[in-house]
């Protein structure tokens, strides 16, 4: 027996098995036979009969298995009538076009059907998305029609004369027009069809005329109208064919009718003929009209135009005129190929290529949906076109061109539709055109050239190199709580792990740059730049996108550096030290940017270097940027073989990159090598003033380059100023101590010789101040000069080799020869007057977000350019005045004797008006655009206040501006942004608590406060303060408390500074940046902006911090019974400062809602058990409460609104109630705080909590009516409408839980509301009406006559009365009548119940 092949055996083994099998001559297990052709039937020709092995196809036949599957139809196979004419393997589409004439497959389901010979027909199109379903419910239950029944109904429905039969006799055709027998395998197919027809006729003759018409209507309602029309046309065609045959045979009889008939037969014939003629005439007229509409008339001689399909030729017609729809519903926006919005009624020519065969074909342009659909086309040109148009649309949307025309945001719509990832997927294409279009669209989405331009302009401003990261403010992440660095590090790690687990679309939803980085877009850009080597425009766009990514965060800069071969490719290809000069000839377009220096690439490297000192060090050392800096700085831009503007930009960016590196104390060794070059540049700077009248683009680029050079020298000077200190630390460092930072390679002696050059140039530039047009061009360079001088003298004063006398003489010379003459010029008065029009604080709309701003994409809203009269505009005085005040502060800090000479600076009218308006207006909402611009404005305000502090300490007549400057200091303290912690510390230390800046403490302020309380100018104001259970004497007056607080300002300052210790790490980093300690600066990117440095309620911060500590120290179920004296002092100092601000600087606390102030004061009672009983705490709390109970404060009190820092006021109040029940000791002050939120205007839930779960608190709430500072009308009006609360009022009164001697305030309130309810005549629900009568009846039956009298005879509230309200001597007649009516009715009903 032969073995079977096994797995793993080779072909040689299989051949060996075959040879053995053939040698044995055994019979095979299977036979190969020819498969029967079903299309030929049983009777094939002899020519087709071949041996099985001679067939073209081999079939495997198993033993005991039939060769052919059993026939499903017992009838023999039918031969094809078209065998001789058919071509085998005919195309199915052509087969359908040529032989689409069978109707049996559409109408009937005949069992005797051979599907092998039947042609396939396509279903007729309908206007509905799906065919109409046939429901069984439409057929009577129990009725099952056979095939013949269905054919009968169809015959009735399709008969053209069915509606006009004779009323007496119905005659039918002799054969069926529907069932023809075609497709049946049997040879007697016609006979079978005739038998079916005769059965139908018999069934029709057995039905009445009404039944036939009813069945006809029912069937017509169920069938598709298009199908009915098709079958009618079939019948008409058959009848016309029969008529023609009859005419040829010249037979008078009509086929399908009996030879003999009556007059009714003739009538039926006539009706049929007329109906057929009408239908043919209608079709002919319709066809004629459609042919007339076509621009090209179809001819019969044309191929395949036998049957004209007008539906397919409609696109050749002329488009109708577009018109605006007169409807309120918006129309779909359509855009041109340039991204322009096309008006709905625009009639554009078709040769523009804006018309297509989609929806609204008469309207030109493409909708966003169509562009998205087109971007997925397989045609490269279509994909490219769609991406280009989308990029143009995004670009114009960001410019705000669609704001007035479209509803909603185009960018939001595109991003929600997946536009970002459409671009990302398109970048992975291999076609250069598609990649170029995707890069263009991504550039339009992410990059704003105007933002970059204004960032470059502010680079040379005071600390202009430092910018905020372009990180969106993600609300989902939540705000990080203040705490230690370890906790923050843990939260950062958790945040990173969560982001790693999120999908790319989820990340991109709130931060597009992060989402793109997760898609490995940097690797794709590297491939495009290195391998695909696109055209120059694409390269520039990619470099701009990479620059935008680098501005995102320091982490993004690290990813750019870590991407394999990305920075190497950029430096090698776009920052070469040698290149072919012919590549960049003048007047010619670059065909390739590879191998040619590019200023955009240098800018990208500079922005990456701003991400941190480590990034800058890697760029300088690993990528050999020092050699390239030397190459582009040592040679004059005019000598570079590049275009003039490109050479200037490249040189400018090289100096800026060097300035950034020098800001970290790096690359300063180049200063010695390039010193002659720098001196040559400085010598040429004064000539810029003479050429400033030209005012062209080349001059502006030269000014920016010169400002970058001065900024570089400023940072080098700061680095050199720290050399002596670092050298001393290095010399004092022992061998076993930690390694110290080495001193920089540049010393003070090497930089001190540059000052004369710069001072001479400054004098030359300042002469152009009176020429406004010239000054606008030269102002950036003049500002950088002044900043350099301020840095120089500040560093000079710290040098150990300094000769103090020489330094002071230089300062006096600078003051007398340069600064005082400058400040006395009339043009300076104009600069001070421009502060208010150009201020972002005074004009909040100037820094508002753009119209198409997207939260996930950070933008500075500079699209279209800033107005000239704005802080970053061309006419803004802020950069120059900030630099000038910086220099004056440094001079007066070194030379105290010069302070008096600058006193008049603070007296400029424009400066005072600006300061007054800036501290009284609401700060703009904090956005990336406002944060960037407000930081520079805060610098100017700080230098004004720093100068005011020096004058307050040295000038005795300074008090006239003290109050204004103190208000500005308090306002600025709550507005400073992250990165300015050093300024906040200086304000707290020297300005906020400076007694010299609070002249009210010495000029009769306490007495004025007492006098105001005594006068009682407001009749609604009550001077009395709630007393204390601890002392019998009254609380001190507000004037005495203010005087004590003023004397303790130094202690208050110490208290606040100690509570801001959590800001110490950020303070150290900020101090290093502001003091110019370059060797300690870690990065140029500022911290992420999530809000100001200090919270808006920072004056209450010690109290809040203490409350948090105490509540966290208390164990569950335990109470902290005693507090240390330090904690009492902390609360006292906090309350003293708040009282001082509320009295003399009320505007500083306007940003805190009145409800938030009240909630903060409640922390006094929630901290411990006896803190509020301490005399100073109790006195200051009572004084503040009296201020917060003034009518104006009570009107602004909104407890239902969300409060900053408080999750729920209701929960806080419940805690206060529980604390009151436990440790209040009946204190009136505590009781007043509990009663204050129970006013009628606030939530009823607070009142229900007191009269429900915490009813025991009513016994201790004994606040006298004469000491209660809130009018009772706020508790009584309007009348209470909550039925549950009214029942609680009534229950506490009649049960004695609420009594006048326990709680006089709420007793008067409850009596007033119950009285108003029981005597109310307003219409109400049946439940309230029944409760009202029940209360009145129970009140009438009260045994307590006093309470009964109060409830029935209540008249109106009056705090002067002992009860708090007045009583009627006798009830008014209407009330008396109503009382008698209710009591009499209730008495009668009760009597009936008793009898029953």
Automatic annotation (TrEMBL):
InterPro entries: RPAP1/Rba50 (IPR039913), RPAP1_C (IPR013929), RPAP1_N (IPR013930), TPR_RPAP1/MINIYO-like (IPR057989). Residues 236-256 have a biased composition (Basic and acidic residues). It is found in: Nucleus. Residues 1099-1325 form the RPAP1/MINIYO-like TPR repeats domain. Residues 332-397 form the RPAP1 C-terminal domain. Residues 33-57, 236-296 are annotated as: Disordered. Keywords: Nucleus, Transcription. Residues 194-238 form the RPAP1 N-terminal domain. One of its GO terms (biological process) is transcription by RNA polymerase II. Belongs to the RPAP1 family. This is RNA polymerase II associated protein 1. It comes from Sphenodon punctatus (Tuatara). The lineage of its organism: Eukaryota, Metazoa, Chordata, Craniata, Vertebrata.
């Amino acid at each position: 027996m032969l073995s079977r092949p096994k797995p793993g055996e080779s072909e040689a083994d299989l051949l060996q098995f075959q040879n053995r099998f053939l040698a044995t001559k055994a019979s095979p297990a299977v036979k190969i036979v020819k498969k029967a052709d079903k299309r030929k039937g049983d009777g094939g020709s002899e020519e087709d009969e071949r041996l099985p092995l001679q067939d073209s196809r081999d079939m495997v036949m198993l033993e005991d298995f039939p060769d052919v599957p059993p026939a499903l139809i017992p009838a023999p196979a039918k031969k094809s009538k078209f065998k001789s004419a058919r071509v085998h393997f005919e195309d199915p589409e052509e087969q359908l076009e040529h032989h689409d004439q069978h109707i049996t497959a559409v109408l009937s389901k005949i069992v005797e059907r051979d599907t092998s010979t039947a042609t396939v027909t396509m279903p007729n199109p309908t206007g509905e998305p799906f065919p109409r379903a046939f429901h069984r419910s439409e057929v009577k239950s129990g009725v099952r029609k056979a095939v013949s029944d269905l054919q009968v109904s169809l015959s009735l429905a399709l008969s053209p004369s069915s509606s006009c039969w004779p009323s007496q006799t119905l005659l039918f055709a002799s054969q069926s027009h529907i069932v023809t027998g075609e497709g049946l395998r049997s040879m007697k197919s016609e006979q079978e069809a005739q038998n079916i027809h005769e059965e139908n006729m018999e069934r029709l003759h057995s039905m009445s005329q009404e039944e036939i018409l009813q069945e006809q209507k029912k069937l017509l309602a169920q069938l598709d109208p298009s199908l009915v029309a098709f079958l009618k046309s079939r019948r008409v065609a058959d009848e016309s064919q029969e008529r023609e045959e009859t005419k040829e045979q010249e037979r008078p009889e009509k086929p399908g009718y009996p030879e003999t008939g009556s007059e009714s037969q003739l009538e039926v014939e006539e009706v049929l003929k007329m109906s057929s003629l009408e239908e043919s005439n209608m079709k002919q007229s319709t066809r004629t009209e459609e042919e007339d509409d076509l621009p090209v008339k179809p001819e019969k001689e044309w191929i395949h135009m036998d049957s004209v399909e007008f539906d397919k030729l409609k696109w050749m017609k002329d488009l109708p005129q577009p018109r605006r729809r007169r409807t309120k519903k918006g129309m779909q926006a359509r855009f041109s190929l340039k991204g322009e919005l096309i008006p709905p009624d625009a009639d554009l020519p078709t040769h523009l290529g804006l018309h297509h065969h989609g929806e609204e074909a008469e309207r030109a342009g493409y909708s966003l949906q169509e562009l998205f659909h087109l971007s997925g086309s397989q045609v490269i040109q279509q994909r490219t076109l769609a991406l280009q148009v989308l990029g143009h649309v995004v670009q114009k949307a960001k410019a705000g061109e669609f704001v007035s025309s479209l509803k909603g945001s185009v960018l939001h719509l595109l991003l929600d539709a997946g536009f970002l990832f459409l671009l990302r997927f398109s970048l992975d294409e291999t076609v250069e055109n598609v990649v170029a279009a995707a890069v263009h669209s991504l550039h339009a989405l992410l990059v704003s050239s105007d933002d970059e331009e204004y960032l470059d302009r502010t680079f040379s401003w005071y600390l202009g190199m430092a910018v905020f990261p372009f990180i969106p403010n993600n609300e989902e992440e939540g705000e990080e709580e203040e705490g230690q660095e370890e906790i923050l590090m843990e939260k950062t790690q958790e945040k990173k792990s969560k982001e790693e687990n999120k999908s790319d679309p989820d990340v991109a939803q709130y931060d597009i740059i992060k989402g793109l980085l997760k898609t490995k877009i940097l690797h794709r850009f590297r491939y495009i730049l290195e391998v695909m080597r696109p055209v120059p425009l694409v390269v520039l766009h990619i470099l701009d996108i990479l620059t935008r990514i680098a501005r995102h965060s320091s982490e993004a800069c690290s990813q750019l550096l870590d991407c394999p071969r990305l920075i190497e490719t950029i430096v090698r290809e776009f920052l070469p030290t040698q290149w072919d000069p012919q590549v960049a000839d003048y007047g010619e377009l670059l065909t390739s940017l590879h191998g040619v220096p590019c200023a955009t690439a240098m800018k990208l490297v500079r922005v990456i270097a701003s991400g941190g000192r480590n990034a800058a060090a890697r760029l300088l050392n690993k990528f050999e940027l020092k050699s390239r800096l030397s190459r582009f700085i040592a040679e004059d831009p005019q000598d570079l073989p590049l275009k003039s503007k490109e050479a200037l930009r490249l040189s400018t960016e090289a100096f800026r990159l060097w300035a950034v590196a020098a800001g970290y104390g790096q690359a300063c060794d180049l200063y010695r090598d390039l010193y002659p070059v720098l001196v040559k540049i400085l010598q040429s700077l004064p000539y810029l003033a003479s050429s400033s009248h030209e005012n062209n683009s080349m001059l502006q680029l030269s000014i920016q380059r010169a400002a970058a050079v001065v900024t570089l020298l400023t940072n080098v000077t700061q680095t050199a100023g720290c050399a002596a200190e670092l050298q001393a630390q290095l010399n004092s460092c022992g061998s076993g101590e930690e390694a110290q930072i080495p001193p920089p390679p540049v010393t003070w002696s090497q930089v001190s010789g540059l000052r004369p050059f710069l001072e001479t140039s400054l004098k030359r530039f300042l002469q152009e101040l009176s020429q406004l047009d010239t000054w606008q061009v030269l102002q950036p360079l003049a500002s950088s000069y002044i900043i350099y001088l301020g840095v120089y003298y500040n560093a000079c004063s710290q040098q150990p080799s300094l000769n103090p006398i020489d330094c002071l003489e230089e300062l006096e010379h600078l003051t007398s020869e340069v600064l005082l003459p400058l400040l006395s010029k009339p043009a300076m008065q104009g600069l001070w007057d421009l502060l208010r029009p150009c201020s972002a604080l005074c004009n909040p709309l100037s820094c508002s977000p753009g119209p198409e701003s997207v939260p996930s994409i950070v933008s500075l809203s500079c699209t279209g350019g800033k107005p000239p009269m704005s802080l970053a505009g061309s006419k803004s005085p802020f950069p120059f005045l900030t630099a000038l005040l910086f220099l004056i502060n440094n001079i007066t800090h070194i030379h105290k004797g010069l302070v008096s000479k600058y006193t008049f600076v603070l007296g400029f009218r424009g400066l005072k008006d600006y300061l007054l308006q800036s501290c009284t207006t609401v700060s703009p909402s904090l956005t990336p655009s406002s944060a960037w611009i407000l930081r520079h404005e805060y610098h100017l305000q700080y230098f004004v206040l720093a100068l005011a502090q020096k004058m307050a300490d040295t000038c005795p007549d300074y008090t006239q501006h003290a109050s204004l400057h103190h208000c500005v200091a308090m306002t600025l303290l709550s507005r400073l942004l992250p990165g300015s912690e050093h300024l906040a510390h200086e304000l707290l230390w020297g300005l906020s608590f400076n007694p010299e800046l609070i002249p009210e403490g010495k000029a009769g302020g306490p007495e004025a406060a007492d006098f105001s309380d005594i006068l009682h100018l407001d009749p609604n104001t009550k001077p009395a303060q709630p007393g204390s259970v601890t002392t019998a004497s009254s609380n001190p007056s507000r004037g005495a408390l203010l005087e004590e607080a003023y004397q303790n300002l130094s202690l208050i300052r110490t208290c606040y500074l100690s509570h801001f210790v959590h800001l110490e790490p950020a303070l150290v980093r900020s101090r290093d940046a502001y003091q110019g300690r370059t060797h300690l600066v870690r990065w140029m990117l500022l911290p992420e902006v999530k809000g100001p440095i200090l919270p808006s309620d920072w004056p209450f911060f010690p109290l809040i911090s203490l409350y948090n500590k105490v509540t966290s120290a208390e164990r569950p179920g335990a109470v902290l019974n005693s507090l240390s004296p330090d904690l009492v002092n902390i609360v006292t100092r906090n309350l003293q400062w708040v009282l001082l601000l509320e009295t003399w600087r009320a505007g500083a606390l306007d940003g805190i809602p009145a409800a938030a102030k009240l909630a903060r004061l409640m922390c006094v009672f929630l901290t411990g058990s006896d803190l509020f009983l301490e005399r100073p705490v109790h006195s200051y709390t009572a004084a503040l409460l009296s201020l917060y109970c003034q009518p104006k404060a009570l009107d602004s009190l909104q407890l239902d609104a969300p409060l900053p820092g408080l999750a729920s006021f209701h929960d806080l109040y419940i805690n206060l109630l529980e604390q009151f029940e436990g440790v209040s000791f009946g204190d009136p002050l505590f009781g007043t705080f509990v009663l204050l939120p129970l006013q009628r205007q606030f939530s009823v839930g607070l009142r229900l909590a007191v009269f429900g779960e915490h009813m025991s608190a009513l016994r201790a709430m004994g606040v006298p009516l004469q000491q209660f500072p809130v009018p009772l009308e706020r508790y009584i009006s309007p009348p209470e409408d909550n039925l549950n609360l009214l029942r609680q009022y009534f229950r506490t009164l009649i049960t004695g839980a609420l009594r006048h001697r326990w709680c006089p305030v709420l007793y008067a309130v409850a009596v007033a509301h119950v009285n108003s309810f029981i005597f109310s005549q307003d219409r109400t629900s049946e439940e309230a009406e029944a409760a009202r009568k029940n209360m009145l009846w129970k009140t009438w039956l009260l045994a307590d006559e006093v309470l009964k009298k109060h409830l029935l005879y209540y008249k109106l509230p009056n705090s002067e009365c002992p009860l708090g309200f007045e009583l009627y001597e006798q009830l008014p007649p209407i009330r008396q009548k109503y009382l008698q009516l209710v009591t009499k009715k209730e008495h009668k009903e009760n009597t009936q119940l008793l009898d029953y």
